């Protein structure tokens, strides 16, 4: 029982380290703090959007904003032509926001424009595939996101920047160790192969004699 418990604990630690390492990678890529990203991912998982998908949506949001700021085109043209002027939002307000904060401002603006559910879905999906699944946590100025993020804090599911970076380093070390172990096994197998071949041949000869 103790052995089984130890194996279970080891598996849980490995899973936690891998998840925290992924948070660190996405945090760096998206310019969203590990704390904010893990809080938000905890919330969105309740609605079927996991960490990787959330990261994709945030990246798409940043890309769409950047596209419009640079070229005046892209998927956000409809928003800035039809929604933004009506609610007093400008492209410049999105300029220095990370993907998470830009998406919240985007949804806040859509709500202030009093769009129907179908219209909200249209504008969300124009930003990123499946992003409309986030509407329940982003509506009402992100109240549900905040509520579930606070729950994540209380239950110890928020990953700090320090832990995320440490987990990423640990994952790298674990990968190197696994690689070295495989290398040793391969070398041993290679050196022992002739002996195994000879032993197998000897056994076959003896079996034929019987």
Q: What key phrases describe this protein's structure?
A:
8 helices; elongated; 210 residues; mainly alpha
Strand and helix map with partners:
Blueprint: H1 2-30, H2 34-45, H3 51-71, H4 77-87, H5 99-112, H6 117-127, H7 135-154, H8 161-209
Task: Describe this structure as you would to a colleague.
The protein is 80% helix and 0% strand. The protein starts with a helix and ends with a helix. It has helices at 2-30, 34-45, 51-71, 77-87, 99-112, 117-127, 135-154, 161-209. The relative contact order is 0.13. Helix 1 (2-30) packs parallel to helix 3. The radius of gyration is 26 Å and the shape is elongated. The protein is built from eight helices and no strands. By secondary structure, the chain is an all-alpha fold.
pLDDT average, as an integer?
85
Shape: elongated
Order of helices and strands: HHHHHHHH
Please give the radius of gyration in angstroms.
26 Å
In total, the number of strands is 0
Question: How widely separated are the two ends?
Answer: 46 Å
Q: Biggest sheet: strands, sense, closure?
A: none
Number of helices: 8
Work out the strand percent: under 5%
Helix content: over 70%
Structural class by helix and strand composition: mainly alpha
Give the low-pLDDT segments.
Answer: 177-186
Question: Brief overview, please?
Answer:
The protein has 210 residues and is mainly alpha-helical.
């Amino acid at each position: 029982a103790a052995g089984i418990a130890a194996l279970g604990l080891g598996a849980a630690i490995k899973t936690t380290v891998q998840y925290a390492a992924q948070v660190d990678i996405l945090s760096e890529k998206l310019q969203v703090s590990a704390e904010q990203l893990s809080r938000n991912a905890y919330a969105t998982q309740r609605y079927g959007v996991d960490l990787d998908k959330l990261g994709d949506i945030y990246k798409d949001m940043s890309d769409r904003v950047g596209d419009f700021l640079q070229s005046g085109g892209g998927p956000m043209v409809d928003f800035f032509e039809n929604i933004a002027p009506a609610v007093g939002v400008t492209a410049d307000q999105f300029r220095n926001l990370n993907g998470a904060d830009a998406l919240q401002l985007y949804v806040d603006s859509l709500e202030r424009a009093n769009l129907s559910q179908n219209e909200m879905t249209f504008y969300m999906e124009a930003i990123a595939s499946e992003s409309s699944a986030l509407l329940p946590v982003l509506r009402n100025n992100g109240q549900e996101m905040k509520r579930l993020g606070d729950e994540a804090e209380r239950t110890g599911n928020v990953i700090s920047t320090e832990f995320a970076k440490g987990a990423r380093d640990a994952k790298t070390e674990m990968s190197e160790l696994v690689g070295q172990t495989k290398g040793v096994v391969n070398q041993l197998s290679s050196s022992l192969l002739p002996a195994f071949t000879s032993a197998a041949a000897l056994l076959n000869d003896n079996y034929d004699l019987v």
